[in-house]
Amino acid sequence: MKLFISTFVFYxxxxxxxxxxxxxxxxxxxxxxxxxEYVGGGFGDEVEVDEDEVDEDEVxxxxxxxxxxxxxxxxxxxxxxxxxxxxxxxxxxAGVAIEVLNGVGNEESKKKLLYKYVVSKFGAxxxxxxxxxxxxxxxxxxGKEVIYYKMLDQKKYIIEELQVTNSKFRDYIIVADExxxx
Length: 182
Description:
Layout: H1 2-20, E1 46-47, E2 63-69, H2 70-73, E3 82-89, E4 92-100, H3 107-111, H4 113-122, E5 135-141, E6 144-153, E7 157-165, H5 170-178
Antiparallel strand pairs: 1-2, 2-3, 3-4, 4-7, 5-6, 6-7
């Protein structure tokens, strides 16, 4: 009986750890208040999304990008020097992301912490095990879109990010990132 109880408690601890670091657990389209604690309670500057940049069938509200220390979202610190990002459109969660913060030496991406998490949780990325790989992969998981990408900016900085959104809010994130408001 003691073994059963110990095993059950251990399972609950592991399960709550996994949920605490799981972007898929966030309700895309839900109220922005559900991510306030992860971004330090405040929301960043508003990004005006030009209607010419997105689907004409819908009126697109402005996007707010808020970020906070990754340890606000995932207490384990398994992602190294990274941040949690939330994309807010019309007071709804349009998407969330984990972004690795890199400097000139790109030390954080060299550790491959986010990459290892992505391939263990969502599956392999063809030819991505090469040190100089750049590219992206998209998975469809339970009505959500999971996007992982690694890009080289100005031939010295690696930009590495894992995003979760859905088809309704995808354009908000793409346009906000293209405008560089993160």
